[in-house]
Amino acid sequence: MLTALDIGANPSSVHGEGRDARRVVETARTSLANAIGGRAEDIVFTSGGTEANALAIQGALKLIPDAVVLWSDLEHSAVKGAIEASGAQQRKIKLTSEGILDLDDLGNALEDLGGKTPFLCLMHANNETGIVQPVAEAARLVREKDGLVHCDAAQTLGKLKINVGLLGVDYMAFSAHKFGGPQGVGALWFRAGAPLKPIMLGGGQERSLRSGTENVSGIGGFGAAIDVTAELTGVERVQEIRDRFEALVEASAPVTIFGKTSERLPGTSNLALEGFKSETQVMAMDLAGVAVSAGSACSSGKVRQSDVLTAMGVPDELAGSAIRVSFGWASTLADSEKAAESWLAAAKRAVPSAFKEST
Ligand code: PLP
Description:
- By secondary structure, the chain is an alpha/beta fold.
- It has two domains: about 1-230, 3-Layer(aba) Sandwich (Aspartate Aminotransferase, domain 2); about 235-350, Aspartate Aminotransferase, domain 1.
- Helices cover about 40% and strands about 15% of the residues.
- The chain contains 13 helices and 13 strands.
- The protein has helices at about 1-5, 15-35, 50-60, 75-85, 105-110, 135-145, 165, 215-230, 235-250, 280-285, 305-310, 315-320, 335-350; strands spanning about 45, 65-70, 90, 115-120, 150, 170-175, 185-190, 255, 270, 295, 295, 305, 320-325.
- The strands form three sheets. A seven-stranded mixed β-sheet has the order 1-7-6-5-4-2-3, sandwiched between helices.
- Helix 9 (about 235-250) packs parallel to helix 13 (about 335-350).
- The structure holds pyridoxal-5'-phosphate (PLP).
- The site of pyridoxal-5'-phosphate has 13 residues, from helix 3.
């Protein structure tokens, strides 16, 4: 990133400094292509996961007038917003109680389309529960009906192995800051030949799919983060730290850990203790110096009950008592122990009745 800032030139300029800046952008594009088993020329850099999702969904649907968008409560508000903005017909797919897309319901929806083109939006792993989704199986069902699949992988790059060809998707969105890259940069990969129109017009950068001077230092940082995490060597360590936290809280409190038996992201823990409201937990942990989030926190900072947990059939009282604890590249075992201790101390104060037997 510092190299790019020092260059300071526009990557579209033909002078030497411009070519140096171009090299930063293209090196990062190649790093991302290698990390996802795709081609560099099929990658468009964006301002983040939100824009990558919007470009895929709105940009593709402009060219598919008979599309029916299939989506579920798993999806991030960036995806839901883009679907709404597209004005396309929609059909919502159910979730199972394990927090994964219900493939039977998807099959039924695909049978009911009356010749229209299915366009499935299915994220790779959920941002609240960390639960990994059956993307390859769902994509196979959609392809059998000549449909298209967009996958929001903002949560998985740098944490899970990704191969766009094996997953069988047509579009995949990424965000750099979810795995240690800088904020405000992301990318969209699309299958060669998949329908895609720009949603912003201007200077024609990024093969005319995303006009605007590239965020060269951000893109350079994105590429560097990909290079550092390419072998996914840190993943087991993060999982160990997350598992330590869960083992400590489970040993002393009657908590529910969502997705515990499912394949999950290594650093995500979503847990609830009935009667211990999400916002109280977030505040108590903050006072103890531990930063956690409620299951779903909108940008205004207010805590809103999670659509994902509700769609999994979690009762309101329990869903209203859920928090999301995320561990990452900078976390340590001591952090997870401190988080567990702080959470248990606050839980004992807030819901003493839940601890009666053990005290
Ligand atoms: N999609 C998912 C699953 C996310 O978790 C996020 C980030 O919160 C986004 C999209 C949006 O990404 P960005 O913040 O880079 O726009």
